[in-house]
Please model this.
Amino acid sequence: MIVFDVKNLSVYYGDKVGIQDVNIEIYKNKVTAIMGPSGCGKSTFLRSLNRLIELVENVRVEGKVLFEGKNIYDPDVDPVELRKRIGMVFQHPNPFPKSIFDNVAFGPRIHGIKDKKKLEKIVEDALKKAALWDEVKDRLHDSALRLSGGQQQRLCIARAIATNPEVILFDEPTASLDPIAASKIEDLIVDLKKSYTVVVVTHNIQQAARISDYVAFFWMGKLVEYGKTEEVFENPQNELTEKYLTGRIG
Ligand SMILES: Nc1ncnc2c1ncn2[C@@H]1O[C@H](COP(=O)(O)OP(=O)(O)OP(=O)(O)O)[C@@H](O)[C@H]1O
Model:
C-alpha cells in the first residue's frame, strides 16, 4: 500500500534548488532509505514529507505530497496535526532538559492527555517499543541528559512513538553514535516497520543496504534511481547510481 505519493515535488531556497521534480511512491510498513552524497537534497526531501521544510525562511515548495491520498500542502491541512501523524528523529539526539518520563509524555500532554495512569501506560509502551524500557524503568524521573548518546537517541524515538504516528522519518539517526549504539538503532528501525512506515536518510551505503526494503538515490537535487534495495544494489539501472555504490563518486 502506498503511504506517500510524491508528485513533481520541487523545493527552492530563495532561487537555489534544494530538490527538483521528484516523483516517488513510499510504501506502508517498509523501510525506505534515502541515500546520496552531501548536499544532494536528502534532508530537504525528508523535511518536505511533514512540512518541516516550511520552517526555513524563503523556502518555496512546488508539486504535491499525497499522504494517504490527501495533499499535505493543501491549505486546510494543519501542520501540527500532520507532524503528530508523521514523527521525526534527528541526527543529534535532542532530548529536552527534562526527565525521561517527561520527554516521552511531552507530545501526548500537548495533545491533551492529562490522566496520570494513561500517560504512564503511553510512556511505558513507547519506551518498550524503542527498546529502552529495561534500561530506564527504575529511573524514569532522572534527567534525560544523563543518558548515553545511544540511549538519548532511543529516547527520541520513544518520544516520536508516544504520539502514535503512522510514519517515522529519520534524518541520519546514527551519524553521531558509536558503532554499537548505531547498530542497536539499526535493529530498532527494522523492528519498527512492523508498526510504522519508516523513511531514513543516510549517507552510509552499507546502512541503506542493511536496513532498507526500498532505496532512493539522490544526486544534485534529483531522484536518480529508486527501487527495491536488493535490485538497486545488485543491478543499478543508472550509471550514476553504479558509480556512487562503487565509491567512484560522492
Ligand atoms: N536553509 C537553506 N538555505 C539555503 N540552501 C539550503 C538550505 N538547506 C539546504 N540548502 C541547499 O539545498 C541543497 C540540498 O541540501 P540538503 O541539506 O537537503 O542535502 P543533504 O543531501 O541532506 O546533505 P547533507 O548530507 O550534507 O545533510 C544543497 O545545495 C544545500 O546547500
Remarks:
- The mean pLDDT is 96.
- The CA atoms of residues 14 and 98 lie 37 Å apart.
